[in-house]
Automatic annotation (TrEMBL):
PANTHER family: BRANCHED-CHAIN AMINO ACID PERMEASE BRNQ (PTHR30588:SF0), BRANCHED-CHAIN AMINO ACID TRANSPORT SYSTEM 2 CARRIER PROTEIN (PTHR30588). The keyword Transmembrane helix applies. It comes from Proteinivorax tanatarense. Belongs to the branched chain amino acid transporter family. GO terms for cellular component: plasma membrane. Keywords: Amino-acid transport, Cell membrane, Membrane, Transmembrane, Transmembrane helix, Transport. This is Branched-chain amino acid transport system carrier protein.
Length: 435
């Protein structure tokens, strides 16, 4: 094997670890269980946002300066800063970090120590997080390097056992669940948002290995991303199938409880314990990385006015409070936030691949702000208070019933500004030629 291929595999496995470490394995089994016979289109939708979009996000930010703020600043610098803050807060104290603690408690602690107080656990968990964030050590990185392979092998073992000896057959669940349900559930992985933050880190890691040519860096990024995507596809697809064959289990089981029950049925208590410990430690490494990222981001963007340690401690304290809501309530809390952020990120990623054809910021503004407006109105009408006229107008848009009401207006408005720019440029050239 050549050195280049080795580097691609190393970076690819690192990407897999980054995306898989935040407890994302709890989503596919629940999707599969609800889908039953419809598991294929549902998981395909989930893979698009849970795997495909993060891969495209890594490539997009590499084309646009290496981070989300640079990409979003193509619409406006102020918007770029605001969106980056929103994403960091979501990946940080509002959703992702609390979910790592709640997932660890529900998968690694509660099944074995049901009387252990969750508030005390979260205090211990975030104390450990702060120990590593405030005094960085290579220990946690080494733990991560060991635990990710253990977690991956454990998941493959569970999936293989579930395929060879299925728990049940695929059934018609009677639940109306489709491609769009999987697509929107993929938002909950938050990997596409993570990709826009991690893109710069990956590019820097590739350059540190001695690759300096832009084309070569881009090729390695794409191939490493495909390695990570392949691993995630195997695990997510397999877990969804396991969920689809678990139709006899109660539908009211929480997401963590479902994967725990599946693992216990297939590998017994030992397998359940191994999974819980590996997931818990992987979540811990993710929480440490995200807390440090939040501290660094807000310290840097405030030009040092917000102290790194103060931000990190605040992030941990807020995360601790939210973590005690429990996994399912955190997921419900995150839904409206993600329904607003994700359409904008999807539009920005798509435009990054068309950037060389875009002549001004107006195309970015038109497309992104259209997606933002429709998403915000839809979320207000669905989660806060009904706006009958607005809801009716949004439901009348193409693909609105599938959850993509923002798509057509975004494309249309972006195209209008694109044609306007070309018309203005054509007119200017014509006038210049005449004179």
């Amino acid at each position: 094997m050549t050195q280049k291929r080795k580097d691609i595999l190393v970076v690819g496995f690192a990407l897999f670890a980054m995306f898989f470490g935040a407890g994302n394995l709890i989503f596919p089994p629940a999707l599969g269980q609800a889908a039953g016979e419809q598991v294929v289109p549902v998981i395909f939708g989930f893979l698009l946002t849970g795997v495909g979009l993060p891969l495209l996000g890594i490539i997009a930010v590499s084309k646009s300066g290496g981070d989300l703020e640079s990409l979003a600043s193509k619409a406006s610098k102020k918007f770029g800063r605001i969106l980056a803050c929103g994403v960091i807060l979501t990946l940080g104290p509002l959703v992702a970090i609390p979910r790592t603690s709640a997932t660890t408690y529900e998968m690694a602690i509660a099944p074995f120590f049901p009387n252990f107080n969750p508030i005390i656990f979260s205090a211990i968990y975030f104390f450990i997080v702060l120990v590593f964030v405030l005094k960085p050590s290579s220990l946690i990185d080494n733990i991560g390097r060991v635990l990710t392979p253990i977690l991956f092998v454990t998941m493959i073992t569970i999936i293989a056992k579930g395929i060879i000896q299925p728990q049940g057959v695929l059934i018609d669940t009677g639940i109306n669940i489709s491609f769009s349900n999987g697509f929107s559930e993929g938002y909950q992985t938050m990997d596409a948002m993570g990709a826009t933050i991690l893109g710069g880190i990956i590019i820097a890691a590739i350059r540190a290995k001695g690759y300096t040519k832009t084309k070569e860096v881009s090729q390695i990024t794409v191939r490493a991303g495909m390695v990570a995507a392949a691993g995630l596809t195997i695990v997510y697809g397999g877990l969804a199938y396991l969920g689809a064959t678990a139709g006899d289990m109660p539908m009211e089981l929480s997401r963590p409880a479902l994967i725990i029950q599946i693992t216990n049925n297939l590998l017994g208590t030992f397998g359940q314990g191994l999974l819980g410990v590996a997931v818990g430690m992987a979540c811990l490494t993710t929480a440490i990385g995200l807390t440090a990222t939040a501290g660094d981001f807000f310290s840097r963007t405030s030009n040092g006015k917000s102290n790194y340690k103060v931000v990190s401690i605040t992030t941990a304290m807020v995360s601790m409070g939210i973590s005690n809501m429990g996994v399912d309530r955190i997921i419900n809390f995150a839904e409206p936030i993600l329904l607003i952020l994700y359409p904008m990120i999807i539009v920005l990623v798509a435009l990054a691949f068309l950037d060389k054809h875009i002549k001004s910021a107006s195309v970015y503004k038109g497309a992104v702000f259209s997606a933002l407006f429709i998403s915000v109105m839809d979320v207000i009408g669905t989660f806060i208070f009904p706006i009958p006229m607005m809801t009716k107008a949004i439901q009348g848009l193409p693909l609105a019933t599938q959850g993509f009401g923002w798509l057509a207006p975004s494309i249309f408005i972006g195209l209008v500004f694109y044609l306007k720019d070309h018309y203005v440029n054509y007119t200017r050239k014509k006038v210049g030629y005449t004179h």
